[in-house]
């Protein structure tokens, strides 16, 4: 496959994935990480580098007293890979893939007009265990170990073929591979990976070496978790009924009754993904809450931010506090005294559901607003 075909095929895949995301641009981010047990596919392109055994080839070319005049090597080429994976849990996945590491060669000349040109190409399949450590809602560190089954196809030409035993050897071998990388999530479904991998290979003429591949990949998750809905605002209790009087009497006196309300909002109802700015839908939900508080003598309001367990404790603590502060700022902008509104950030320390499932994590990403005050009712 030519360079143009390589790039063209991967460009089509990339454009299709990006177009699908553009069509969903108006949908809220629901889950900062992929759902457990999710399948995904991907494609990557990059540059590979091989180590050619110059010393051994030089010995073969000069074995009969010839003098080596020049030895040129081509150790880099375009490489690509296609893969499919299964997310086992939040931290581990298994991947199976096909790879083409490109072709590498040398051109050697000796005294007496001797010449030997060689070229070797490597392609095959692999199976890896991939470990993923989230650094934030969007960034993760990747590590992988696995096995690759590669076919090495080698071709020699020139008038010094006696230096090799077979001009067109091939070899198939099972060897190890490993890699490190970073992943950035554009959305729930689409992510970008940058990786460096090392493939252990045999080159069909008795040599064993490594081919390194540095690549950039697009990863697309098959299927999406259902979008979570904002938690309904709990209605304020209705005023106590007034007993009917048998005859006209003086107006009943009003007595204050202590009222305490606690309302929970799903984080996606108030904020965009990984943000702490209240969006229009969130403002509407808070306006609805403040409307239900009309007639109440508010003494204290407490906004408390919570997160799921994705990311570090320190990051989640800061994110929960930023969101609690954003809710307070909006409430104060609507006329509530700032001195009466307190904020807390609980991070991931108080889950209300299991963080092992997408639905549980959605429930844990929330902001609660607790209101304590008095309301006058007729006695």
UniProtKB/TrEMBL annotation:
Where located?
Cell outer membrane
Q: Does the keyword Glycoprotein apply?
A: no
The signal peptide stretch is 1-25
Record region (Disordered): 346-379
Q: According to its UniProt record, where is this protein mainly located?
A: membrane
- Please indicate if the UniProt record lists Ion transport as a keyword: yes
Mind telling me which InterPro entries this protein's record contains? Bact_OuterMem_StrucFunc, OMP/PagP_B-barrel, OMP_bac, OmpA-like, OmpA-like_sf, OmpA-like_TM_dom
The annotated topology with respect to the bilayer is: Multi-pass membrane protein
Family from the record: Belongs to the outer membrane OOP (TC 1.B.6) superfamily.
Q: What is this protein called?
A: OmpA family protein
UniProt organism field: Massilia frigida
Give the source lineage, highest ranks first.
Bacteria, Pseudomonadati, Pseudomonadota, Betaproteobacteria, Burkholderiales
């Amino acid at each position: 496959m030519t360079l143009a075909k390589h790039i063209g095929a991967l460009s089509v895949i990339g454009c299709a994935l990006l177009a699908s995301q553009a069509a969903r641009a108006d949908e809220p981010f629901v889950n900062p990480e992929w759902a457990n047990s999710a399948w995904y596919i991907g494609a990557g392109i990059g540059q590979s580098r091989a180590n050619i055994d110059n010393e051994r080839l030089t010995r073969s070319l000069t074995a009969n007293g010839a003098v080596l005049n020049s030895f040129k090597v081509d150790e880099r080429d375009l490489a690509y890979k296609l893969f499919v994976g299964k997310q086992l849990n939040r931290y581990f996945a298994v991947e199976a893939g096909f790879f083409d590491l490109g072709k590498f060669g040398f051109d050697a000349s000796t005294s007496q007009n001797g010449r030997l040109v060689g070229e070797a190409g490597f392609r095959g399949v692999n199976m890896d265990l991939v470990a993923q450590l989230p650094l934030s809602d969007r960034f993760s560190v990747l590590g992988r170990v696995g096995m690759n089954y590669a076919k090495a196809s080698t071709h020699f030409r020139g008038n010094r073929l006696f230096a090799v035993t077979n001009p067109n050897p091939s070899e198939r071998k099972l060897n190890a591979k490993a890699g490190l990388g970073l992943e950035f999530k554009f959305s729930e479904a689409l992510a970008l990976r940058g990786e460096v991998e090392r493939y252990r290979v045999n080159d069909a003429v008795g040599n064993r070496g490594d081919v390194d591949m540095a690549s950039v990949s697009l990863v697309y998750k098959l299927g999406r978790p259902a979008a979570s809905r904002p938690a309904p605002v709990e209605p304020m209790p209705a005023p106590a009924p007034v007993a009917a009087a048998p005859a006209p009497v003086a107006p009943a006196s009003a007595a204050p009754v202590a009222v305490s309300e606690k309302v929970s909002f799903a984080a996606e109802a108030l904020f965009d993904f990984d943000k702490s700015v209240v969006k229009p839908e969130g403002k509407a939900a808070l306006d609805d809450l403040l409307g239900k508080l009309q007639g109440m003598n508010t003494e204290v309001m407490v906004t408390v931010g919570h997160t799921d367990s994705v990311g570090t404790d320190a990051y989640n603590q800061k994110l929960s506090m930023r969101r609690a502060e954003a809710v307070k700022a909006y409430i104060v902008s609507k006329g509530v005294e700032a001195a009466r509104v307190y904020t807390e950030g609980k991070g991931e320390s108080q889950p209300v559901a299991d963080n092992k499932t997408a639905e549980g994590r959605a429930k844990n990403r929330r902001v609660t607003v607790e209101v304590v005050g008095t309301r006058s009712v007729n006695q």
